[in-house]
Design a protein that fits this description.
Elements (H helix, E strand, L loop, with lengths): L10 H6 L5 H10 L2 H4 L5 E6 L1 H5 L3 H7 L5 H9 L2 E3 L4 H5 L3 E2 L7 E6 L2 E4 L2 E10 L2 E6 L6
Helix pairs in contact: 2-6
Length: 142
């Protein structure tokens, strides 16, 4: 993990440095998006944990990681990325946000819980130099 008070370089580094995101890192590599998300950004990433990936039916999850489905996997991952640095307070002030994939994700605040699409934000505002990561409990499907 990065030293306290020092931001890691990229949003990809946040995922790479946390074993709870090993499936996300594998997905980013399979889809060819690592270099993009190591770019200048800024990016806001809604990062599904390994448990979120495990919630997908096993056959569907296995199919996503096949080389022939690279474009589909890339589309799903782009549905988790928003241009700009959107901190939690910025997200909760909106009723929807627009991911890189296009379309929109609805944002709902229920007490202290914030939902983006079908996912609940479990941890927010993990900052990197090129953006911010919010940890979510589901894979967002376009």
């Amino acid at each position: 993990m990065a030293k306290v008070g020092k931001k890691v370089k990229t949003v990809v580094d946040i995922a790479t440095n946390d074993e709870n995101f090993s499936m996300l890192v594998k997905a980013l590599k399979t889809a060819g998006l690592v270099d993009t998300l190591k770019g200048d950004g800024p990016f806001t990433i809604f990062a599904p944990t390994n448990r979120a990936f495990e919630r997908l039916p096993e056959k569907k999850r296995e199919d996503l990681f096949k080389a022939k489905n690279k474009a589909r996997l890339a589309d799903i991952l782009k549905h988790h990325v928003v241009s700009g640095r959107r901190m939690a307070k910025d997200i909760t002030e909106r009723s929807s946000i627009s991911p890189m994939k296009g379309g929109s994700l609805r944002v709902e605040k229920e007490g202290t819980r914030v939902k983006v699409g079908d996912a609940t934000i479990q941890k927010s505002d993990l900052e990197a130099q090129n953006g911010v990561v919010h940890v979510i409990n589901r894979v967002l499907m376009p």
